[in-house]
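Hi R.,

Here are the chain sequences for the assembly we discussed:
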Amino acid sequence: MSDMEPTPRTSVKKQGQSLSDLAHDVLAMAKTHGATEADVVVADGENLSVQIRLGSVDRLSKAREKRLGLRVFVGKRSATSSTSDFSPESLRRLVSETCTLAKAVVEDPVSGLPAADQMATEQPDLDLYDETRLDTDRQIDLAKRAEAAALATDERITNSEGADFDSSWGRVVLGSSHGFIGDYRSSSYSLAVSPVAVDPVSGSMQRDAWYDVRRKFHQMDAPEAIGIEAARRTVRRLGARKVVTKRVPVIFDQESAGSLLGNLCSAASGYSLYKGASFLAGQLGKRLAPEWFTVYDDGRMIGGLGSRPFDGEGLPTRKNTVVDKGVLTSYLLDTYSGKKLGLPSTGNASRSVGESPSVGPTNFYLSPGTRSAEEIIRSVKDGLYVTELIGFGINMVTGDYSRGAGGFWIENGELTYPVEEITIAGNLKQMFQDIELVGNDLIFRGRIASPTVKIAEMMVAGN
Amino acid sequence: MGQLIPLDSFGVTEHDVLAALGRVKVRNVDYADLYFESCVSESVSMEESLVKRATKSISQGVGVRATAGEKTGFAYSDDLTRQDLELAADTARYIANSPAGTQPIPVPVRSRPARDLYPVSQDQAEVATEDRVTLLNRIDAEARRYDPRIKNVMAAFNTEYKIVMVATSDGILIGDVQPLSRLQVTCIAEEGGNRQIGSFGGGGRIGFQFYRQGDRYLEYAKEAARIAILNLSAVDAPAGVMPVVLGGGWPGILLHEAIGHGLEADFNRKKTSAFSNLLGKRVASDVCTIVDDGTLPGRRGSLNMDDEGTPTTRTMLIEKGILRGYITDKLNARLMGIPLTGNGRRESYQSIVLHRMTNTFMLAGESNPEDIIKSVTKGLYAVSFGGGQVDITNGKFVFSASEAYLIEGGKITKPVKGATLIGSGPEILTTVSMVGYDLKLDEGVGTCGKEGQSVPVGVGLPTIRIDEITVGGTQSQR
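And here is the predicted structure of the full complex:
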């Protein structure tokens, strides 16, 4: 995962030194070692994770972590490094080696920090942090309640892959040789349940899962509600079968439509685009989808799982319209990929601590339509409702798409029987053009979200 | 023999280690261990004919673990002071619900692995940045020389040098040095608005010299270019059930996805695998014999010892079609009363031990590979794949071809693109009717992800014929 989100780390203060002081010191050191520009990310946090299985604790894991990432420029040459060892001697060696590394690679005319006057000047509180600390027993109890609810829902649920409750708190400090220093805290709480159901007739098993993840503990769904939904999703898969190979309308439920939107997000990444490795290359300003298709990426959504006050280079985040009424209006860019394409950054630099910036979504979502999921299903006479996608059968260069799928067969507007061991295939460019309906059921359970989506026709391969 | 790693390379003493083990190994704890790790990784990458990215990462830390019954308690720290060790030990033993004890721990006997499968000295593993740059520049030139339609070449050379030390409550104190490197080349070809991609690479627990032997790195460049150019003329894949011939080497990912994960002991102990209760039963045709082998010299998936200090082994998974064994770590071998196979692995000190595959492959059969292709009237010949994925519980797996051809009338004809294969793990190998004598291991690029942890693995396969599998293309056969 490339991002600078709270890979959990804590405020381990070394000799009373704050993380921003540390960032400042490392930047000064870089300068003395010949760096003309530099930026540094320091992240720390803590994480507590419990896993329950069949009512007892299976795993308990607790961690405190810290990591510092450095990027230096020696003229137009650049290198990055990272370490978990914050001792002054180790940091001095790291800075020196990074500068040496930079001198060994070639000049890249486009490289460099963003312009100093573009850096974020205000850092709004996006309500990303919850101080609630759950102790181990409390987390164990919440996970137990969720799993117990799943197991009690249906007698065919006889086993479980368990229930996990994770909480993490972290802080990120970003400093650059422009004098920028930014800092924010974030937290997250998640609960996931994965029951296993056995078909009483055939003995075959099915597993599914349900979850919730929030920045704030009090916003979480009740553990029982998560368990019951997990059970419902698992039991309904029992008796799944293959279908005959044919071309039919395909409806993606919220989760699988979110995966489609994730594909759009990858294709809109500046790095894929300037390398010619995206089917969206050269498509800016062109029609991608019907006019009821509008996609936003909003880095300032209050409490959003992808929100942050500034991006991985210290530029202010914002709300970008990526697709406006079917027309591709923006790529996702940081400074480097933007320059390669002759465009300004969109504030989408994502930074994994040890690497140079890349591009990533903040809160990336398809704007909801007016129809309910039920209405959309009713519009299909013979077709597929997809609830699960597996495998990596997507060629981002061409848009060719062929993935394993599971879900339900639709006959005369109703879900009839579960299906599995089938694939759905098409081409993403065509699939977006062929979107017929967008649901009204947008819910955020991650940084990429989508309502239900109906595609006019795809090839379903089975028997 | 492997190297003897001094404890003080982690800045801790034997006394600190014993004290921490004693603190964690309380009355109700069955087993405890400390895993020290220090890792330096470096990466240099090229695109648009410029070697413009260089990255170095240093990490060091300790993971402390206790198991009690089926429970695992785990904590880690990237500081290695005595206090950090004690804090981690207290967290790990929380699961045991018993007070801190002063149980005597056997004083560990410091030892080294009995063999060294990857005797790469540090100076052979460390590659000067200038040499990496030269290598990548030559790759760029070679790929572009292959065909003028190659418009971009991306290549990355990664190395990792990991030193680990495991101290266990059953008296083991053993260390290992684990070098690992990989060279990956990706080409983009373009012709009249048609853009296609091709990738190739290799690596292992080997020194830099490996890539220069016989200009291996240039072969990677040519292969990546060849696949990208080939895909320019590829037709859309067919859809439906048909016979498929898999080429040797990397297509062994089929074994990894279709059966390997299903044979990881925990899923079977918990009865959540499609392979639960199938030990001793037929799960493949009698031409299929499959092993997991962590003892092959220099391979990406090989290890002198696993991350619990157990020597790796060769484990018979399927013998002439009959399911013979699971791969295990200490926890699951103990709980299930089955042999310990040395498959306890972790991504780093920050991750819990899971049992994972090493190098998983099918042994050679007796068929001539050409006869296997000739036997198919209408089907698919797949020689390289992207990734794959499996649902352990219902056994359904998918994997996607990156180089494949139609077989028509017993002959390989047009290249196809966008073919995904989907099947059911416990069933697919029962339809394997021919196994070639040409066993090939992959080039050394595989990484397996499970529960968010990535570990290097290998796969291998001779040419095989699968009589029936669903191919998920876009072109109807009817």
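The first strand of chain B starts at residue 31 and ends at 47. The radius of gyration of chain B is 24 Å.

Let me know if anything looks off.

Best,
T.
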